[in-house]
Specification:
This protein has about 160 residues and is α/β, with parallel strands linked by helices. Helix content is about 15%, strand content about 30%.
Length: about 160
Amino acid sequence: MRTLEAAGTSITGVNLPEYTSIETLHLPSSVIELILYGARKLTDFKIYDTAGNIDYSSLFTLHVTDSDYSAEWYGNKEYKVGDCILLDDKYYRCTTAHISVSNTVKESADATEWNAYLAANWLETTSPTLPVDWMAIATAMLSKQSTETEISLLRLNHALI
C-alpha cells in the first residue's frame, strides 16, 4: 500500500508495519496517536479537521523513528538507498547504502576524489521528493495544545525532542 486516504472518516488509529512503503498518509483528526518506524518513503502526511483544514493539534502522541533523512550531508553517517540530502545547494538521492566519508576527507579531497565518491553513492536530482518535516508537525502540535503532549523524534537529522 502506498496511499492511505482516510480523511473524512472516523477511524481512531492506524497501524503500519515497520519500514512501510507508504508515500501518502491523510488522516482525520479522530486519530490522536501516530507511531511510525522507518517510514522513509512517506512524503505527504496530513491530518484534516472536520472542516477539511490541515490541523495537527488533534495528535497527542507522535513517535517517529528512523523516518527522515532530508538534511544537509553529514560526514561519518549511515545513509540508505533513497535517502535525500542537500549538499552545496544541490539535492542528491542515495543510490548505494553506505557510511559517508568524514568531513575532513571531504574538505581535503581533491575534486576528482570527491566527484568519484558522489558518483558512486548519490544521484543528483533537480526535483527531490523530500520526506515529511516532522519537526514542523511537532511544532504545530505543541502550538495549539494546552494538555500534555508526548513527542519523540528519534534518529532524524535535524532534532531530537
